[in-house]
Protein 1
Amino acid sequence: MRADLSRWGKLVATRQGGAGVARTEAGFLLATPAMPASGGVRYTNAQLDDTAGRPRAAFLHRPPLRLELRARFSHPAHELVGTAGFGFWNDPFGMSGSWPPALPQTAWFFFASPRSKMALAAGVPGNGFKAATLNTGRPPARAAAALLLPLAPLLPAAALLMRVSCIYRRAWPYAQRMAGVGETPLALDMQAWHSYLIEWDQAGVRMAVDGAQVLEQQGAPAGPLGLVIWIDNQYLVATPQGQLAWGVEAAPAPQWLEVADLQLGARTQSKPVIRKR
C-alpha cells in the first residue's frame, strides 16, 4: 500500500506485509512487524521514496546534491534482521515500477544482516552497516558489460576461478574499480541517534557520520537517482565467486528505523566542510 506524503516533497510511503510508516514530530518512523518462523515468514517492507511510478530517466536527483538526516534503529547490528538504509539509488530491479532492469548505481548508508553476503569490496564484509557507493553506469563498467555479454556462457567458469584466492586477489580489485565500488564498515551504536551526510557532486561522493568523513569515492554516479529510506526482512547473497541467493528472514520482534531532520538540497560552498578522521 502506498500513501502520498505531498507536504514532504515527492516522497511516497510503501507499506508491505503489515509494515507501517508514521509521521513523528521531526521526521518518520518506519516499522516492520515481528515475523516468527512458526507462523510462515512473508516479505515485509516499510519504505519512503520519490521513485514510485516514475521511469528511471525521470528520477529527480543529479549532482551537486547534499542529503542530511539523523537516524536510529531499533536493534544493534547483530540483532537487526533484513536490510535497511537511506540514500540514493537507481532502483535497478524495477521495484518501484522502473523498467527494464539496469546496472546498479547507489550512494547510501546500507545495512544487511549476517545472513546476507554481498562482498563487493575486497577486504570488506558482505554484511553489516556501511557507507557504500556503486557506479556500474560509468563508461568503463558499461564497456566491460558489453564486452562480456557474448561471453555470458563462460561466466560460471569465471566465478569458479574467483574461488582461487590468488586469482581473486589480483582480478577483483580491478573489477571493483571499474564498477565504482566504495565501502566503509561503520562500527557505531545503531540504536543511538547519529547524523548522516551524503555529498554528491560531479567529481565523487563524500559521506560522513557525526561530522567525520567515513568514505570518499571518486567517479560519482551521473544520475538521475532516487531517494530511498527503508527497512525490510530480506536477505541477499551475491559474491564474485558466483554465490547467488535471495529470501526473507524470520524476525523475532518488531523492528524500526526512525529518521529526523531530513534536509535535501543543492550542495553549496556555504555548507560546513566535512572533517576527516
Note: The chain has a mean pLDDT of 83.
Protein 2
Amino acid sequence: MIDFSKYRKIKLVDIADVQRGKNNQIYEKGTIYIQVSALSNDTYIAYILEQSQALESKYVVVNAKTGVDAEYLYYVINRHIREFIHNYIQNINLTVDSFKHMCIDYHDDIETQKEFVKRIKCVDELILKEEQMIEHVNSVKKNMMEDVFI
C-alpha cells in the first residue's frame, strides 16, 4: 500500500551518483543535471533529460542508483535545490563536492516513488493546460484591443 507519510531525510549521494558534466559526453535519457557555474536566481533548478544528449561542463550530472526512480529523484531534488544552493553557493558557483551535503526527503519504496511521479505529472499537465488557456485568452484580448483601436 502506498504511504506518503513514510519518508526519511537522506543524503543525495547515498542514492545517486553525482559528478561534474563532461563536454561532448552523451548522457542518457533520465539523467538529471544542475547548473553549478555562473549561477543566477533563474538557474536554481534541476533538469531531467527527455532524450540522450551532450551536456556542458557547467553542469553537475546526477544519476539515480538502482532502486531509485529517476523522475522521482528529479522532483525531490527540485523540492530542495533552492535552499541547498543558497546555503552552499560560493560567489556565483557551486562545487561538485558540496553535493555531499545535500539532503532530500526520500521514500524508500519504489512503488511509492512511482505513484508520487504519476500524481505530480497529472498536476503538471493541469498546470500546462491552464497556462495554455491563459495564453489563448491573452491573445484574444490583444486581438480585441487591436480591433477596437484601429
Note: The chain has one domain: 8-148.
